[in-house]
Amino acid sequence: METKVYKGYQTIIPSEIRKKLGIKPEDKIVWNLNEDGAVNLNFKKQKTTKDLVGCISSKNKPNSVQLKKQSQRGLKVDIHR
After folding, report:
1. How far is CA 68 from CA 7, 20, 36, 49, in A?
2. pLDDT at residue 30 tops 90
3. Are 68 and 77 in contact (CB under 8 A)?
4. What does DSSP assign to residue 55?
5. Do the beta carbons of residue 39 and residue 32 sit within 8 Å?
6. Among 16, 36, 67, 74, which one is most buried in terms of CB atoms within 10 A?
7. What is the DSSP letter of 77?
8. Domains of the chain with CATH codes
9. Would you say residue 41 has pLDDT above 90?
10. Percent of the chain with pLDDT over 90
């Protein structure tokens, strides 16, 4: 597959590759240049709040509405209270 480099050094990831790897907007590309001059690309998925659900556990049941309001106001959110 071949793509063009446009002004501003932008290019397009072919749809076949985007679909096969599940690449979405806001995902990142990690570029690695080997000693022999070969380039390897790795795709780093952008984390969403859906990805974080279930990552934190607490003995106390937090009030989700209150925590959301606190975070929106820029207040420190303490889930261990």
Report:
1. 42, 35, 51, 13
2. yes
3. no
4. S
5. yes
6. 67
7. -
8. 1-46 (2.10.260.10), 47-81 (no CATH)
9. yes
10. 49
